[in-house]
Amino acid sequence: TSAEAVCVVTGAAGFVGSHLCERLLGLGCRVMGVDNFFSGRWENLTPFRDHPRFSFLERSVTEPGLLREIAAEHGPLACVFHLAAIVSVPYSVDHPEETWAVNYQSTIGLLQEAGRLGCARFVFAGSAAEYGDDARLPLRESYAGDQTSWLSPYGEAKYRSSRAVAACGDGPRGVALRCFNIFGPRQDPSSPYSGVISRFAEMAVRGEALTIFGDGHQSRDFVYVSDVVDAYCRAAGLVASAPEVPAGIYNVGSGTRTTILELARMILSLTERGESIRFYAERPGDIRHSVACIDAIQAVMAWRPRVSLEEGLRETLRWM
Ligand code: UD1
């Protein structure tokens, strides 16, 4: 069916969304990208903007009737990939109501509409932020939601959305992918809250000192964007060799921890720079350690991360 039915990708002009569109086109799918350019960028679309199987709608996911409109024009929907969101955690703290509308209510609206349209699959962009600051490592899917207070409106909206997607009932089969720290080409380095790898890569390429917030011994689980895209395709049943995926919530990470100091040193060594690091005060609200348990996705989707941190860093640096 992938030859005729349409895959909808919300957040198509974003970092992960644009890579997903490209992969889906490569698999032979028809793709309808949706983005309102709140944080997405036109230039992310340029590699495939003119592809004959790609269409695009500049629209917010909060507007009702979006999927109905797409189905009326392009025919039945094979899968909805819902990646559009307010992606900045600090922004979510300052704008909780807008975050709720964009990061939660849109999910419910799209799920219901997808169900009415007979769409069989729904894949959602969950987040490691759903765990808040949980010290039980590695983080297992069942741990989220225990806490009564959330670190951010972003984390809460992602958690509630993931739960709704996975509890799809008679709607589309829903899979939520709880992604850890994704990195790779097209990740925007321009804000102080941008992903640490995109920031470090840009600083290294410009010959600036890398800025570490805190002592650098905090750790994260970094996963390369092409591996994340592979998980999306498996979740949607688009990888022929992969098993049928039941509804549920699955972590997507490397399953390994890297400290920020180790990361800084790797990037400095790959760019042949000396030990050029400057230490600053710890970022308020920063979590200390984070690492995913990836047993569930390995067992259910036969997925595993294929790109090592070093290989992914080389690709990211090449793109800068
Ligand atoms: C990430 C997500 C965030 C989510 C959280 C949940 C990104 C960009 N952010 O935040 O949306 O809520 O996971 O787990 O993916 N750092 C430096 N120097 C820099 C930049 C960052 O030392 O120039 C440090 C930070 O203080 C932090 C670590 O690097 O300790 C990682 O930072 P960041 O890439 O922003 O990701 P998270 O904090 O994990």
For the terminal residues, how far apart are their CA atoms? 37 Å
Poorly predicted sequence stretches spanning 5 or more consecutive residues: none
Question: Main β-sheet, in a few words?
Answer: 7 strands, parallel
List the ligand species.
Answer: uridine-diphosphate-N-acetylglucosamine
Write the CATH homologous superfamily of the domain at 6-183 and 222-254: NAD(P)-binding Rossmann-like Domain
β-strand amount: 15-25%
Notable characteristics:
seven-stranded parallel β-sheet; alpha/beta; globular; binds uridine-diphosphate-N-acetylglucosamine; 11 helices; Rossmann fold
SSE layout:
Layout (H helix, E strand, L loop, with lengths): L5 E5 L4 H12 L3 E6 L6 H4 L8 E5 L7 H9 L2 E6 L6 H6 L1 H21 L4 E7 L25 H14 L6 E7 L1 E3 L12 H11 L3 E4 L5 E2 L1 E3 H11 L12 E5 L5 E2 H11 L6 E4 L14 H7 L7 H11 L1
Parallel strand pairs: 1-2, 1-4, 2-3, 4-5, 5-6, 6-11, 7-10, 8-13
Antiparallel strand pairs: 9-12
Helix pairs in contact: 1-8, 5-6, 7-9
The structure holds uridine-diphosphate-N-acetylglucosamine.
How would you describe the overall organization of this protein?
The protein is an alpha/beta fold and 320 residues long. The chain has a domain at 6-183 and 222-254: NAD(P)-binding Rossmann-like Domain (Rossmann fold), CATH 3.40.50.720. Helices cover 37% and strands 18% of the residues. It has eleven helices and 13 strands. The protein has helices spanning 15-26, 42-45, 66-74, 89-94, 96-116, 153-166, 196-206, 225-235, 260-270, 295-301, 309-319; strands at 6-10, 30-35, 54-58, 77-82, 121-127, 173-179, 181-183, 210-213, 219-220, 222-224, 248-252, 258-259, 277-280. A seven-stranded parallel β-sheet has the order 3-2-1-4-5-6-11, with helices on both faces. The longest helix is centred in the N-terminal third of the chain and has 21 residues, at 96-116. The chain is globular, with a radius of gyration of 19 Å. The chain binds uridine-diphosphate-N-acetylglucosamine. Uridine-diphosphate-N-acetylglucosamine (UD1) binds at residues 89, 127-129, 154, 181, 194-196, 199, 211-213, 218, 220, 260, 283, 286-287, 290. Uridine-diphosphate-N-acetylglucosamine is lined by residues 89, 127-129, 154, 181, 194-196, 199, 211-213, 218, 220, 260, 283, 286-287, 290.
